[in-house]
Every structure is written in structure tokens, then in C-alpha cells.
């Protein structure tokens, strides 16, 4: 909210996943979140809705092979891509999600179709793919979604608990665990000029997961949440841990209790560390435009755009700023 005019300031915030992003992927991750936040912001300043803005931003991240979503998704234990995605709007709490979906270039847009065209919230596996066909969403060959990075990582990991220790637990416990090379779930939260909030999250999940494994990302309250009365959250990190603490809803509750977006984000990430000893990251937007972000992994690529100011970062406490005028 602009203090002088009383008008709502359109705002968008995106993330590219929380984990120990290696230096080789640092630049691509930062450039990717900066590009995505600009795409979403353009929607907002042209009078578009928050839900359109988060969908467009997440599509941009899904199309970018640097991220573990859409093109660039990681491989399960059968060396296959299975993706999860969700989208939600904060006016009527409409939501749509897909899980374990295959051969889809932009799962977030399929989730949007679930929200807009069905009476359901979550479609999984074969049913989600059947729905895609019904909606005319093209089926793409799996190979077009798989990157050399994903294959390399699959060859190195090939055990789910090894991936979890590599990405989300203290690696010093076992120095032999290799660092995962590509693992960025993506997400966005936005506030439009009418005061509507929305969020979207999309992921290929975690390397070497069991076929059929569904993480936190498509689950309302875990992979994200939004409500015009409070704000919006998108999460990333160790899915099983995030599900156990309902990370996104947790943050919403802290904000309802009066905590700032930043305080609420920090408190919920700390709670997850204390309660289930695993790590992740969140981006949070209050309905007054206040921004928060927090992560307990080594790094999380993020970017925000508000009042033509683009902020972004990767390392803890890092915040770079530049002007972005459309
Ligand atoms: N939360 C995602 C999952 O568990 C992975 C991630 O965010 O890195 O599927």
C-alpha cells in the first residue's frame, strides 16, 4: 500500500528453490528469477490479476532448464520425470493442482485448468494426464524435459535418502555425500492493484524419489497458501518435512497473529528446523505489500519487484537492487 496515495502497490516475489546451489548454477539461477519476476510484474502493471502474474512467472521458470520444474525436472528412481504444481487465488480461495504428472511442459498451467475448469482441487498421475488431453494440452516427449544435469545427478544419487542428506540435512554429518547439482523448485506470490493475492509453485520433486511420491509443492497449506485477508506464501525444500509442519499455513497463521512477513517467515523456518530437523525456504507477501523471505539451506535464488524496484539475492542476507521501468 502506498502511504501517500492509499493505492495498492502491485508486487511480485519469486523463488528458484532453496538448497546448496553450487557456484556453477549461481548465475543462471539469479538471472532466471530476475527474468521471471519481470514477466510477472509486466502482467501486474498492465492491470492483470495476481493469479495471471504468478502463472506467467512460474511458466518462465518452468521453461528455464536451470530449474527443477517443467524443462529441467529431476528424475525419479525409474529415471522418469514426474512433476507437481499448484496455483491458488486469494479472493475466493479457488485452487488447482496436479501431482505425478508426466509429459507436460508447463504443469502450472495444467493446475490452472484444474482450478478454472473442474470442481476438483488436485488431480494426480494418469487422471491428470487424461485431463490434460481433454483440455488440448500437448503431450511432450519426456526427453525434451530432461537436462544433462538431471541425468548426472540421477547417476550420482540413486538413493532418495542420499539426496535428502545432500540437499536438506547437515552435510558435515557425512562428507561422502555428493552435492546435488540441480534442484530448484520454483514459486511465485503476487499482489495486484485490486488487492488480490495469489501463489503458484511447481517442481520436478527430488532426485531418486519413488515413483508416485508426491511432495509438499501441490498440497495447499504446505507448498503454499494465499488469502486476500492475510497474504500469500510459496515454499521450497524438503517436501516431507514441509508437509509435516504445514509450512505455508504456519506462516499465514503467524501473520494473522500480527507478525510481519519477515518475522512470520523466519519463525516458521525455525519451527521446521526445531521440530523435524530439516531445511527449506519461503517467500511471503502480506496483503499490504510487505515482503518476507527466509531459508535454512545454504542458498535460495529469489527476486521481487515493487514500485519499479527490482531486488534479488542468493546468499543469506544478500540483497541487490536495481531499477526496472517497463
Ligand atoms: N519441495 C520439493 C519437493 O519436496 C523440492 C524442493 O523444493 O526443492 O518435492
Describe the structure.
This protein has nine helices and 13 strands. The model is unreliable at 171-181 (pLDDT under 50). It has one domain (11-313): (Glycosyl)asparaginase (Glutamine Phosphoribosylpyrophosphate, subunit 1, domain 1). 34% of the residues lie in helices and 24% in strands. Helix 8 packs across helix 9 (261-276). The chain is of the alpha+beta class. The protein is globular and about 55 Å long. The chain binds aspartic acid. Residues 17, 19, 183, 185, 203, 205-206, 215-217, 236-237, 239 line the site of aspartic acid (ASP). Belongs to the Ntn-hydrolase family. It catalyses: Cleavage of a beta-linked Asp residue from the N-terminus of a polypeptide; L-asparagine + H2O = L-aspartate + NH4(+). InterPro entries: ASRGL1_meta, Ntn_hydrolases_N, Peptidase_T2.
CATH-defined superfamily: (Glycosyl)asparaginase
Calculate the mean pLDDT score and round it: 92
Would you report the number of β strands? 13
pLDDT below 50 for ≥5 consecutive residues: which ranges? 171-181
Tell me roughly what share of residues is in helical segments: 25-40%
Q: What shape does the CA trace take?
A: globular
Strand order of the largest sheet: 4-3-2-6-5-1-11-12-13
- The figure for the number of domains is 1
Amino acid at each position: 500500500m502506498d502511504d501517500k496515495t492509499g493505492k495498492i502497490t502491485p508486487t511480485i516475489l519469486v523463488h528458484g528453490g532453496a538448497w546448496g546451489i553450487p557456484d556453477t548454477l549461481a548465475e543462471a539461477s539469479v538471472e532466471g528469477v530476475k527474468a521471471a519476476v519481470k514477466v510477472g510484474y509486466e502482467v501486474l502493471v498492465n492491470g492483470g490479476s495476481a493469479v495471471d502474474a504468478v502463472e506467467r512467472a512460474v511458466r518462465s521458470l518452468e521453461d528455464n532448464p536451470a530449474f527443477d520444474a517443467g524443462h529441467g525436472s529431476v528424475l525419479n528412481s525409474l529415471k522418469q520425470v514426474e512433476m507437481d504444481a499448484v496455483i491458488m487465488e486469494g479472493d475466493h480461495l479457488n485452487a488447482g493442482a496436479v501431482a505425478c504428472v508426466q509429459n507436460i511442459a508447463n504443469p502450472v498451467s495444467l493446475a490452472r485448468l484444474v482450478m478454472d475448469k473442474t470442481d476438483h482441487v488436485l488431480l494426480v498421475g494418469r487422471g491428470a494426464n487424461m485431463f490434460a488431453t481433454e483440455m488440448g494440452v500437448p503431450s511432450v516427449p519426456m526427453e525434451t524435459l530432461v537436462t544433462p544435469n538431471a541425468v548426472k545427478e540421477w547417476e550420482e544419487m540413486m538413493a532418495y535418502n542420499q539426496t535428502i542428506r545432500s540437499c536438506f540435512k547437515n552435510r558435515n554429518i557425512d562428507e561422502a555425500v555428493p552435492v546435488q547439482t540441480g534442484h530448484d523448485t520454483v514459486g511465485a506470490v503476487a499482489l495486484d492493484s485490486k488487492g488480490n493475492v495469489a501463489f503458484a509453485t511447481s517442481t520436478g520433486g527430488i532426485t531418486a524419489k519413488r515413483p508416485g511420491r508426491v511432495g509438499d509443492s501441490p498440497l495447499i497449506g504446505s507448498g503454499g497458501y494465499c488469502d486476500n485477508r492475510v497474504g500469500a506464501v510459496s515454499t521450497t525444500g524438503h517436501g516431507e518435512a514441509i508437509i509435516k509442519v504445514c509450512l505455508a499455513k504456519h506462516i499465514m497463521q503467524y501473520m494473522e497473529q500480527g507478525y510481519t512477513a519477515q518475522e512470520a517467515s523466519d519463525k516458521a523456518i525455525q519451527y521446521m528446523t526445531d521440530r523435524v530437523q530439516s531445511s527449506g525456504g519461503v517467500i511471503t507477501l502480506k496483503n499490504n505489500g510487505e515482503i518476507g523471505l527466509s531459508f535454512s539451506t545454504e542458498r535460495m535464488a529469489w527476486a521481487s519487484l515493487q514500485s519499479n524496484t527490482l531486488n534479488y539475492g542468493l546468499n543469506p542476507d544478500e540483497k541487490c537492487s536495481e531499477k526496472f521501468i517497463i
